[in-house]
Amino acid sequence: MILMHTIKQLFSIFAPNLNKNTMKIKFLDAKQFEGTLKCTVQSNGKLNFSSSAIKAMALDNHKSVRFAYNQEGKSKDELYLLIQDKITDDAFKVNKAGNYYYLNAKSLFDNLGVDYVHHSVVFDLIKTNEVIDGLTLYKMNRRKGKVRKAR
Length: 151
Fold this sequence. Notes:
Number of domains: 1
Shape: elongated
Strand order of the largest sheet: 5-3-4-9-8-1-2-7-6
Order of helices and strands: HEEHEEEEEHEE
Number of strands: 9
Strand content: 25-35%
Number of helices: 3
Distance between the termini: 83 Å
Radius of gyration: 25 Å
C-alpha cells in the first residue's frame, strides 16, 4: 500500500512535465492518397484515364475536356486540361468503355507531334490552384516513356 501511494505521488509530480513535451499528432486520411491521377495515350490515339482520375475528376459521358498549353512556356509540351460539366463544340467529349473513360484525342496528339504509336505516353495529372469558370485546371506532367513493342 505504501509503494502504491509513493508511485502515485511520483506520478503527480512528474506527470505535468510529461504533458508539456507531448507531440501534436495529426493523422492523415488514406483517401487523400488512394492513387495517382494519370492518363495514358493508347497506340490508337485514345486518351484513357486511370480509375483514380475518374473518381477524383468525377468523369462521366456527359462531360467534355478542353486542353491548353502555356503560351509563355518553352514548347507546347506544357499541357493542361479542364473538365467541363457539359459537352461543348470546342472540347473533346468524354466517352465510356466498360468501367473506364477515354477521349478520342488522336488528332490533338498528331498535331502536337506526340509519337504514341512507337512510345508509351503517360501523363500524371496534377491539380493546380487555377480555377477557370469555377472548374479546376490540371497540369499534365509527361512521364518518360518506353518504346512500345512491335506488333
